[in-house]
Amino acid sequence: MASIRRPHSPAKQHLLRHHPPFGPPSQPSSPLRHSSSSSSSPRTHHHLAAGYPHPFLFLSRRPLPRFAAFFLLGSFLGLLHFLSHLPHTPHIRPAYSSSYSPNPVASAADQLPIRVQDDDDAADDNRKKLLIVVTPTRARAAQAYYLARMGQTLLLVDTPLLWVVVEAGKPTPEAAAALRRTAVMHRYVGCCDKLNASSAAADLRPRQMNAALELVDHHRLDGIVYFAHEEGVYSLDLFQRLRQIRRFGTWPVPVISENKKDGVMLEGPVCKQNQVVGWHTSEENSTIRRFHVAMSGFAFNSTMLWDPKLRSHVAWNSIRHPETVKEGFQGTTFVEQLVEDESQMEGVPADCSHIMNWHVPFGSENLAYPKGWRVGTNLDVIIPLK
């Protein structure tokens, strides 16, 4: 059955066009509303008439732009909070002196340590000088024991410290491995390898110490030089007081000698405050030596090796240990090149009443030196287990 649609009349069509049947009811017009609507711009009136929302309500009605905006805002606030709570980075200062360059004297893998310090410790660290500890050594059965004991002592000393170990002959891989295990910054060099087979240990030590002085003089290492034999016993208080020396410092040292009945002889200065007023020595050496100092009983500023204003006028040339002087007189002949008299010496400590190191020779000179410090023979079982 066909449906018949009747067209609306022109008047009804006009009413439907201005008042849709399903739209919101129109509000009655008033002169005030008519005047305000008439004063608005045509573009705004067009958007409102077309049903578009307000432009500022775009983010509140669209989920994706709203999520992106709040995500960026939260990320920015979180970054500001993280940057405001970062810790203060302390000033990094090298632990060695500014005039010291570690490259010429450090080994392939060793470099001077760099310590991170705060501003409160900056003044204390500025007063710390480089300690240059010179140790002569030679290949023998007790060499590993001596180097390990000396290395463990120096490991407890505050940096900066450079351990110059001079081998009587060519450097050996066994001694080099023992020095690396100590974890102390060191320089291992060889000396007088042609004289090793025909010379005694007492004849080689002056040449070994001169090799260390050549190293210090060549690289102009600014520090306190101290000759520490590997047989000696040293306290940590000694190394702490070495940095207080300005030019030349000395102190008493007990020397254990096998020729004496009591076995102990004290050598070194007698001090009043920090001035040297006399010497401890034996009766037979009371008038022979000028300065009664032990080889491990003095230390000096390394700048005295190349600065003639800081040393004795007698030493117009290089300051070195005399190689032809009899044992027992090597210390005094070396000190005579550095100072003129006792007025140029400093007592360490002020009253020279502390014993800070011992010279203890170890009776192991006649033992066989195994290659690589390993025993490969005489390993048969003497008493088998039952």
UniProtKB/TrEMBL annotation:
Pfam assignment, any one: Glyco_transf_43
Glycoprotein in keyword set: yes
Role of this protein: Involved in the synthesis of glucuronoxylan hemicellulose in secondary cell walls.
Protein name stated in the entry: Glycosyltransferases
Origin species: Panicum miliaceum
InterPro entries hit by this protein: Glyco_trans_43, Nucleotide-diphossugar_trans
E.C. code: 2.4.-.-
Gene3D superfamilies reported for this sequence: Spore Coat Polysaccharide Biosynthesis Protein SpsA, Chain A
Keywords: Cell wall biogenesis/degradation, Glycoprotein, Glycosyltransferase, Golgi apparatus, Membrane, Signal-anchor, Transferase, Transmembrane, Transmembrane helix
Family named by the database record: Belongs to the glycosyltransferase 43 family.
Molecular function terms from GO: galactosylgalactosylxylosylprotein 3-beta-glucuronosyltransferase activity; xylosyltransferase activity
Biased composition (Basic residues): 1-20
Region (Disordered): 1-46
Domain of life: Eukaryota
Site positions per UniProt: Interaction with galactose moiety of substrate glycoprotein: E267
Topology in the lipid bilayer: Single-pass type II membrane protein
Biased composition (Low complexity): 29-42
